Amino acid sequence: MRLFHRLIWAALAVALAVGTLQTALHQLWAVPLLLEAERFEDQKAVAAPPAAHAHNEEHAHVHDEDAWAPADGAERTFWTWVANVLHGFGLALLALVALTAWVWRRGSGPASPERTTPVWLLAMGVAAAGFLSLHLWPSLGLHAEIPGMDAAELGARQRWWLLSAVSAGAACACLAFARGHWRWAVAAALLALPFAVGAPQLQADPLAGFAPEAQAVLRPLGQQFVVVTHGVAVGLWMSLGLACAWAFARWVNPLVTAPHHEGATHGA
Fold first, then answer.
1. Which residue among 31, 103, 198, 226 is least enclosed by CB atoms within 10 Å?
2. In angstroms, rounded to a whole number, what is the distance separating the alpha carbons of residues 53 and 50?
3. Which burial class, exposed, middle or buried, applies to 56 when counting CB atoms under 10 A from its CB (0-12, 13-18, 19+)?
4. Rg (CA), the chain
5. 197 assigned to some structural domain
């Protein structure tokens, strides 16, 4: 129970630091591009929905207009920070649990080479696996989109994103925890699986609803946004790895590496 409490508090400390940094990166890099793209949203020509779905579309549109949204400026920034802290908490807890599992499973013996591996190096390895699984691998099939861009059906994209993230995560876990040479072949197959299935793609131009003048601005803006999202993700996972290394070494590792009888005492 004591280990669980330390994991929660360590994850919260990491989330506050990482969420604040991520919000700063968003404000510096991503928000200007988003605000620029949002200027053109009202200019988009929306195709009329089929008659069978016209009532549902109109009903959904009314609800969208009535839905609450934070005002631009300080309120929007504050709620972005809240979302980033909550996001960071989930990622930090996942990373800390992975670090705990690694030290417990691979470094349980006193002569284990993992005992001599610096915590920061283990934490950056976990962060690299998270970056690969939750950002890089899914983004190879589904690029980041600026406001107003059309995309393939949402449910299909969500299913493919989940397949890609789970496959990449399973590949990383296989390489980390399995010991046989066969794990390399299994990891390669898992990484290839989502691309063998194929990511859902929109057949038409995603900016087809905009006038040529707007497309000339939005197309390079969309390319910049893809680069920026990669930059923000790199900053997020690097800071997460370093912060988790500090939090794990300070609060969690002393319990994980304690002798078994001490761990049982703490757990009680």
1. 198
2. 5
3. exposed
4. 22
5. no
Q: What are the structure tokens assigned to 176, written together?
A: 């980390």
- Find the domain containing 143 and state its range: 2-151+202-267
Q: Is residue 182 part of a domain?
A: no
Cβ(5)–Cβ(227) under 8 Å?
Answer: no
The answer on pLDDT for 181 being more than 90 is yes
Given a contact cutoff of 8 angstroms between Cβ atoms, the answer to whether 95 and 127 are in contact is: yes
| Matching residue, tokens 């059309």 | 150
Give me the number of domains the chain comprises. Answer: 1
Q: What is the pLDDT of residues 98-154, one digit of tens each?
A: 999 888 876 544 445 555 678 999 999 999 999 999 999 999 999 999 999 999 999
Q: Domain for residue 178, yes or no? A: no
Asked, for residue 219, whether it belongs to a domain, the answer is yes
